[in-house]
Amino acid sequence: MLRYELKKVFSKRVNCIILLLIMLMALVFSAFAISSVDFVGQNGVSHKGIGAARSLSEVKNMYKGYITTKVVHDVILKDKLLNEKYNYAGDGTVPDKIYAKSLQSQNDIEDMTNQIICGDGEFDPYALLKISSKQSNSIYALREANIQGYINKYGKTKEQKKFLKVQYQKNKTPFYYEAADSWKTMYLYAETYSLVLIVLIGFLASGIFADEFKLQADAIFFSTKYGRTKAVRSKIASGIIMSTIVYWMGIGLLSAISFAVMGIGGAGVTTLVGETYQIYSVSFMQEYLIIVLCGYIASILSASVAMLVSAKLHSSSIAVCIPFLLFCVSPFIGRVLPFKTCFYLTPDQLVNVMNCIKIPLIYQFGNVVFRQIPFITILYLLISIGLLPLIYQSYHRYAK
Amino acid sequence: MKLVIDNVTKQFGNFSAVDGISMEMENGVHGLLGLNGAGKTTLMRMICTILRPTDGNIRYNGKDVFKMDSAYRSLIGYLPQEFGFYPDFTVLEYLMYISSLKGLKTVFAKKKAEQLVEMVGLSREKTKKMKHLSGGMKRRTGIAQTMLNDPEILILDEPTSGLDPMERIRFRNLMENLAEDRIILLSTHIVSDIERIAGKVYIMKEGKLEASGSVKELCANVEGNTLEDVFISYFGENGDEINAQI
User: Fold this and answer.
1) CB-nearest partner of A223 from B52, B73, B85
2) A222 to chain B, minimum CA–CA distance in Å?
3) Which end of chain A is less enclosed by CB atoms within 10 A, N or C?
């Protein structure tokens, strides 16, 4: 039964076109991701596309290893010397050849240092030029001091403060470094592509229940032995399986092409090198997996909501709009809501993990404190699962 | 086997589509005659448990069919007036899908589907997608799907519409054979479809049962000696229109 339900979905001409579009978009997004990495060769010529990401990683990996205070000190020293010569923090610019030779390789360490210095204030890309040698030698101590500021700012209660402290204590310094440009690049493309998949999966799922009525096949369907029981469950299962196949096929293709070209270096390195004050102690690969997993939960939610609406209304025309409203319009609605907290809990946050992970957002129920991402992940997974019995009830109770 | 429709009413808002109808059916072909909008389809949908009566009840062998639920639906075969199908399924795939909805085992269903496509004369078209079939072929596929579970109750709503004269004759013969050990309720406004084969005929008008009885009994009450005359006598004003359909 399930096989035929899946066949119904995948044999519809319009659905075949959508699947083709999904594949095509995976290729296009891969191409965008690959070409977005910029590498400046020793001759000062900028390169993009195949090979750029790997070349960039190769150059940056000269700093592979622990970022000790000595490493930071040397980087700052090099920056200061170059700035004295070219005044790039002011009106001047560094010649491309010099950039390629001296600055390109240490970009990530500069960013990390600037972040540590700026703390929760406005980011200054030249902050490291303004600190003394003594300060550069105690950069991790400065980070510890700023973390206390974060704890005081974002921890509203005693429990929250304690929770944040525990999270920050999980991060061991000095950080280990390895170039992870392919992962950092893919965050944005995976999230954007997930959003496309979510809307299209909603479209595919909306026809599963509505088509019985559209094709006037409902009378035979409901007059059969399993038409209101097993067959309805099969339809729901086909929606979930379809979403799973389509999502992982799309994301899998995008990831496979992009990582095959750009490499997977830095997979196990902590993301704290990039976002030093985040409360998630994860590696670059883990963050990527969290992003695609959240996208998958959003896809299941999209399919569940589309199936519920189409099962209730016996039509897919409204159902196809719901995922779009949930994931594309809800951010704008969230912004006008009176409570800022609500804005960070709307379903679109599932496809905004890349930004959410940077902010130490926490929630508290009683004495239990949660971080935003695990909270929305569990919340929307439970909602998606909770909708399934409602879909069953809507279709099962057909005879009026 | 006894199907009892007991004072069944179906209202949509203030409109009574079916108004207090009572019928008792045992093995054999039962014809349901009436103009479009007489309430035939609504009555059949209630018998198939697709619609729930506003009042009254439907019993099969003494049990309420809505309480029997899937056990009852496993005993019926239904061909609706508007036969919907899945355009990208082949005839065999369609029959296999309906078999699974009817709870048939795959091996048995395959054999049964092959038998039925042969019975309805679609052997050559069995691997064709349904969207490529003619209207008559689709209708025959619809008839085939009703028989998959070897039903005790067969509900056929305008089964011969779209069939050519030869197919209609074949259909009539098929119904005659099948009626021996099952209840067949066949609605039509084409009188000749049921005149020869129906053991009992029910005439519906504006949601109500106007008359019922064997063809002979019905003919005895009117001038003329055909079911066509009976029909015209009940739907006098529309006689010409009906004649055209006959």
Assistant:
1) B73
2) 6
3) C
